[in-house]
Amino acid sequence: MSSSGSTYGDIHRYEPARESTAAAIAIVLLTVIEVVFVFMFTYGLVIGWALTDTGNMFLGGVLAVIFVDLAFILGLYRKEFLPDVMIVKKRRRKWEDLYVREDQVDGVSLGGEGGGPWETVKRAVYPYYKR
Question: Where is the chain membrane-spanning (predicted)?
């Protein structure tokens, strides 16, 4: 579904999510595996596996598996259950990301009108000047 509107916030493209059953089952199974590894990590911390070198490396590996499993869960959820939406945004010039208003491009004088050492600070803080 597309629209031809070009004003702020108009939906340019909308593709609904697939919401497949296989992905839902995979997410549930990965969540069960996640809970098992979190329980194993917590049990290892309470028992004191981290006090030995081998146990500490084992707990580090379990923690890595926990985060990789979580990454797979979130990736599957994003791909299968979130719609693909593209909205219209306003293009901005490069300097607009650095300054709030166009009149702030020259910077603000920090030490009065005389300049002096404050001019150096002003040039360091506001490196972009109007030509």
Answer: 21-51, 57-77
